[in-house]
């Protein structure tokens, strides 16, 4: 008997749940793009985007998804034949490296595996060997959404500095911004890339770049830059239209205004990080109980190296796929697929997102549905997962 009638819940790591307020903000006739509310609204976005990323850096907004953000970052920093190091912890780090290679950048990957945070000491060794300082930038994912590994960004900056190397530090914060603590300036990040459809609680369609003065200076020589991708006119626009290199993303801007009001002005970014930490703690508590008594495994063993917005899990194949099918079909909860694993053809891997517009009852609902699905499929598991998650939330709320 299907029990899925009612509001469905998309628990995948992007696109995430769009708040009703954000949806309502878009529900309006097309606005004038030459004057009026859209112009006033656009002025206020940059200060809030700076607060979101913990930076005073320059901001460029693109109409595009995360891949467009990757390419924008590459285009503004590199010329063909330049060198880069990509610190990889999963599918998306490899994706950024592939985008670099496709544009003629010589890439060395420093692969930290799929289950742990990459070791900054390895980066230091690699950079020390580059005596002429030919590596132009180190790129990495703060959270690799495929593996749910959280990379130590401040540690990578410390490694670059310890090696006395001039490389820029460029970070994909697409899956972490608004969820995991991220401090662009304090951590010495030169370029941050994000997109609208995860922690920012919006539909896909906007990509964001924050870039430091150092990155801006490096960008002046970048020969991959084209008029559309160039960040200067977007960050320092002569007219409203320069900021968008054409027609503004009208309705997305109203959505962005509302999302930033909710996240930065009302909840506050530190409170949003704390909420994600508490909700992640509940998910891990449940998953660790399931894992202790049976077949389920968390991808990242060390809690300190786990993202707060998504948790990658596995069951022996094909149980992962069967669980996803059960929660979706029977209970109206869509879990994320596994990405980038060798066994994706008969998947055991899956992901549970707790990212963006998510609260305690949504997380408890998902965990309860997973418990029901595991029971329906007779998967061996530890008992008491929901009690563990509830205790975790109770403790977090008392702090
Ligand atoms: C960490 C990370 N980087 C890049 C991307 C690519 O973003 P998009 O699919 O919007 O192009 C994703 C998408 O999930 C991601 O999670």
Characterize the structure shown.
The chain folds into two domains: 9-16 and 268-398, Aspartate Aminotransferase, domain 1 (Alpha-Beta Complex); 31-267, Type I PLP-dependent aspartate aminotransferase-like (Major domain) (Aspartate Aminotransferase, domain 2), CATH 3.40.640.10. β6 and β7 (149-150) form a beta hairpin. Helices cover 41% and strands 16% of the residues. The chain has 13 helices and 14 strands. By secondary structure, the protein is α/β, with parallel strands linked by helices. The structure holds pyridoxal-5'-phosphate. Pyridoxal-5'-phosphate binds at residues 14, 65-67, 92, 141, 144-145, 172, 174-175, 195, 204.
What does this entry show, briefly?
This protein is an alpha/beta fold and 399 residues long.
Regions with little confidence, pLDDT below 50 for 5+ residues: none
The CATH homologous superfamily of the largest domain corresponds to Type I PLP-dependent aspartate aminotransferase-like (Major domain)
Q: Which architecture of the largest domain per CATH?
A: 3-Layer(aba) Sandwich
Shape: globular
Average pLDDT level: 96
Whole-Å distance between the termini? 41 Å
Percent helix, as a range, is 40-55%
Structural class per helix/strand content? alpha/beta
Q: Radius of gyration in whole Å, from Cα?
A: 21 Å
**CATH topology term of the largest domain:** Aspartate Aminotransferase, domain 2
Total strand segments? 14
Seen as an oligomer or otherwise, the chain set is single chain
Could you tell me which ligands this complex binds, including any ions or cofactors? pyridoxal-5'-phosphate
Q: Quote the beta fraction.
A: 15-25%
Can you tell me the CATH class of the largest domain? Answer: Alpha Beta
Number of helices: 13
């Amino acid at each position: 008997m299907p029990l899925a009638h009612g509001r469905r819940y998309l628990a995948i790591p992007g696109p995430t749940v769009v708040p009703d307020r954000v949806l309502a903000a878009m529900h309006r006739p097309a606005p004038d793009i030459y004057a009026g509310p859209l112009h006033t609204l656009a002025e206020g976005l940059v200060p809030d985007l700076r607060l979101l990323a913990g930076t005073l850096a320059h901001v460029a907004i693109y109409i595009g998804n995360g891949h467009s953000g990757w390419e924008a970052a590459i285009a503004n920093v590199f010329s063909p034949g330049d060198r880069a190091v990509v610190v990889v912890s999963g599918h998306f780090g490899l994706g950024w490296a592939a985008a670099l290679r496709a544009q003629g950048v010589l890439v060395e990957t420093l692969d930290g595996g799929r289950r742990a945070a990459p070791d900054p000491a390895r980066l230091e060794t690699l950079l020390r060997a580059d005596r002429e300082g030919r590596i132009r930038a180190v790129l990495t994912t703060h959270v690799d959404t495929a593996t749910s590994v959280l990379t130590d960004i401040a540690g990578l900056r410390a490694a670059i500095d310890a090696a006395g190397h001039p490389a820029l530090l460029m970070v994909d914060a697409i899956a972490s911004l608004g969820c995991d603590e991220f401090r662009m300036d304090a951590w010495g990040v030169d370029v941050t890339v994000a997109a609208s459809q995860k922690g920012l609680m919006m539909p896909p369609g906007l990509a964001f770049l924050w870039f430091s003065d150092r990155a801006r200076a490096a960008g002046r020589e970048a020969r991959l830059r084209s008029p559309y991708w160039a960040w200067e006119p977007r960050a320092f626009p002569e007219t409203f239209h320069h900021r968008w290199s054409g027609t503004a993303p009208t309705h997305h801007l109203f959505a962005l205004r509302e999302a930033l009001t909710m996240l930065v002005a009302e909840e506050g970014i530190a409170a949003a990080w704390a909420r994600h930490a508490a909700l992640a703690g509940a998910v891990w508590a449940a998953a660790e109980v399931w894992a202790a008594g049976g077949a389920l495994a968390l991808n990242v063993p060390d809690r300190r190296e786990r993202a707060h917005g998504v948790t990658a899990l596995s069951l022996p194949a094909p149980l992962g796929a069967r669980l996803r099918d059960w929660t979706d079909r029977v209970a109206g909860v869509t879990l994320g697929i596994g990405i980038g694993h060798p066994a994706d053809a008969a998947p055991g891997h899956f992901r549970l997102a707790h990212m963006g517009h998510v609260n305690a009852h949504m997380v408890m609902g998902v965990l309860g549905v997973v418990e029901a699905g595991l029971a329906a499929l007779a998967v061996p598991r530890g008992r008491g997962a929901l009690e563990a998650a509830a205790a975790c939330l109770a403790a977090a709320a008392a702090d």
